[in-house]
Specification:
The chain has 156 residues and is an all-alpha fold. 67% of the residues lie in helices and 0% in strands.
Length: 156
Amino acid sequence: MARTYTLKRRAETQAETRRRIVEAAVELHSTVGPLRTTVSMIAEKAGVQRHTLYKHFPDERSMAMACSGLAQERDPLPDAAPWRAIADPEERLRTGLCAIYDWYARNESLLACVLRDAETHELVREIGALRYAPGIAAWRDVLAGFQAEGPQCARE
């Protein structure tokens, strides 16, 4: 009887290689920005050859989607839905803004680079809008209509 070939070990290795590539790209996007990150820089940081990187990510869009997906998976945008249940508008605003400020603080380096590059690079702007616009629109919808000097956030 012929033995059935399965891709189990090879698939695990491929997934690990892909993960290393995406993590390297996210780190570079957080330090030099997506626009200044080259394929060679990502490959070197991930410990792979350029052709291996291209096997996993044949174009800039696929790499950008994987990077933004990992960043969002690691630290998703604050969810505005629970804020709707807060009856007091000032407390709702304070709660929402504190969550948003904390998220921005945790992601400051990456956001600074991405927002800078989005000003001049269409793909960065497009992926940013795809990943973040719906969540930011929900923030605006839930928090709109109240003006305050600024929330007093409890910081650790």
